Amino acid sequence: MVTGWSPSNFTSTTGLHIRYLCSAVAPISGHNFHLLMPAMDSEGTLVFLQEFKKQHPDKHVVVVWDNAPCHRRKDMSKIEGLTLIHLPSYSPELNSAERFFEEIRRETTNRVFESIEKQEDLITKAIKKWGDDTKRLKQLIGYEWIKRQWEVVN
Question: What kind of fold does domain 2-153 have according to CATH?
Answer without folding.
Answer: Nucleotidyltransferase; domain 5 (3.30.420)
